[in-house]
Amino acid sequence: MTNPNRFYVYAYLREDGTPYYIGKGCGRRVYDKRRHNVKVPPKERIVMLLWDVSEKQAFKYESMTVLYYGCKFDGTGILRNMTYGGEGVSGYRHTEETKAGFAQRVNSDESNAKRSATQSGRPHAAAHTEKLAAANKANAATRQAKSSQNRRINTAKRIGVCPLIFGVADKKTHARIRARFYRGERDMMALQAA
Prior knowledge:
Elements: E1 7-13, E2 19-26, E3 46-53, H1 55-69, H2 96-106, H3 109-119, H4 126-159, H5 163-168, H6 171-183, H7 188-193
Antiparallel strand pairs: 1-2, 1-3
């Protein structure tokens, strides 16, 4: 069972020690750079203001602290918070119907056409084109070797032979193994002894 008192309130500090962001979270939220609209400072400038409390208590303390310091967006203070805090739903799960709606919008013909239109006709930079050409030349031999190796492995799997034995056998042995397979001699030992 999830601990109901797993929430905390934290502050991000400027170099002079004044707070520039107050937040509420649980788990590793305080360090997550992807889910903040402000820059996450080094660990030594992150302060835990309150911990081991319920979500309701964390929201209340967060909004009181934001109101105390004030926000820059409304000209009342020093915080870069975009709201006064106290909102949000932790652990919300979208319904299957909502998820299907998201997928339909993202993968619709209209949105695919828009994405395609923004990319088509956009030239690569000359340096990037040269880099791609050099990489393709360098990788051509490797790709060819890998594709022939994959064909041998897939053939071996299809006819039920160990890919290692099939991979090291010469063309004559490959032909004998295939012939025995298609004649119906599909016993593994018989095939490998071929």
